[in-house]
UniProtKB/TrEMBL annotation:
GO terms for molecular function: acyltransferase activity, transferring groups other than amino-acyl groups. The lineage of its organism: Bacteria, Pseudomonadati, Pseudomonadota, Gammaproteobacteria, Legionellales. InterPro entries: Acyl_CoA_acyltransferase, GNAT_dom. Residues 15-183 form the N-acetyltransferase domain. This is N-acetyltransferase domain-containing protein. Pfam families: Acetyltransf_1 (PF00583). Transmembrane segments: none annotated. It comes from the Bacteria.
Amino acid sequence: MKKDFTLFTSARPELKFVRLSECKEHLDTAAMWAKNAWGYMHLDDEQFHYKQLQELCEHVYIAMYDGLPVGMLAVIEKTLSLEENREESSEKIVEELSTPEITEMKNAYLDYVYIDERARSMGLAGIIIEKAKNLAREMNAEVMSLETLNSTLNGFYKRKGGRVICEGRYNDSYPTEIIRLKF
């Protein structure tokens, strides 16, 4: 029987973050969350998110509350270079932050931000974003960015120090907004 969770307090919940590589028993749950949230983009590959999360497991963190997985995030180090990377979204980030002397920078790319539906409205999103910012600091990133497919989330990211810097396209099909997060 699956253990369920309920929160009856106004206190800020304490989350424990565990790398997916250290708790692979939650890979199926993480893949299910990803498929539920973004599966419509990969209908041709039922296992897309499972495979991708497996490959990224060193960068994916499962948020645990009272021993149960309640969310996840990934922070992936990417180098942004004005010379090498012609991807429009990366170019916009570099153009915004670069100087004549600096045309390349370390980006902490935030991906797979998800909170289980049963755990929403508990204040977990802010805790997850703070964890992401801490990870960006630990990797000595110069910038942190993410793409959102759901523009209704932009207000939340703005309250957390984000700013929309350009529009992009995921898989050349789905419009996204590229957000730079201050950390």
